[in-house]
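Recap slide: Heat-inducible transcription repressor HrcA, sequence and predicted structure.
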Amino acid sequence: MTDPKSILEEMNDRSREVFRVVVENYLDTGGPVGSRTLTRSLSEKVSAATVRNVMQDLEYLGLLDSPHVSAGRIPTQAGLRLFVDGLLQMGDPSATDRDRIDATLGENSGDVERVLNRVGAALSGVTQGASLVLTPKHEAEIRHIEFVSLAADRALVVLVFSDGHVENRLFTPPPGQTPSSMREAANFLNALIEGRTLSDVRRTMQSEIEKRRQEIDTLASDLIESGLAAWEDQGADQARLIVRGRSNLLAEEGSVEELDKIRELFDDLERKRDIAEFLQLTEDGDGVRIFIGSENKLFSLSGSSLVVSPYMNADRKIIGAVGVIGPTRLNYGRIVPIVDYTAQLVGKLVSDRS
């Protein structure tokens, strides 16, 4: 779309005010805005016929649409984007909204993921949308790896991190494994992983195994390959997407078709299909981003909008994100500061606990 500033500058004062009032009324009510309503809201006293002419011009520009004959106008997706980029005014979150978010950290107890669950619940409650919180990946250095046999066809790979965090990954080991081959595989890996994070291990371990394959026997080598596969297959679990407030969207008035689209959206999110892409949405900048309707493929079907912001660790590295999904008529002026405030709060929380 053309630069919103230039489009707004090309409009005269009357067109700009009509456009602004239509969008603000739509965001407030969700319904079309008629010329008679506008004549009562404009600073300049003009006739309904004049207002209708202005709306027709805005419709020609692709900024407004008429859902039904003589039913008034609503903003198009392009119109909403123009409003958000060029006319939206934002302040700070209200004291009430800040207090409700802050209250989730009041106890400051439990692990980070439990706190982030509470943050997600509070965010959906404050915004009356659905909240998304992408938890941080665990990036501490690995201190120790061990293989534990559970049955002939089941084993655990146990990861112990330098900060005391422990993760277990269940996998199917190659047939014929013995306690000896498991010890050999673990000793081999422990000699290579010292000082490395799980991400480092994923990137380099395969090539290291190829270089040093002659140092271990076939059984241990096969076990290591299976362990690596377990790390790759379950890698998405390292960054978990917490979804709260789904009922807020399903409670929105709309057609059966619209509700089905929203259900499909949440089914996709709960299957974690797009976790990586969700984080990528934030990586072009360190501020809040707004996606309206079909502007990204996560929401092309449901027609929802997303307000999302990354959060960072103490090294200013993006490690997760928080966001709010809602209808395209979100109160962007209120939601954006809340998401920004929450992201900064979560970043500080994660940094303080690292």
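The chain has three domains: 4-86, 95-136+240-353, 142-237.
The mean pLDDT is 80.
(End of recap.)
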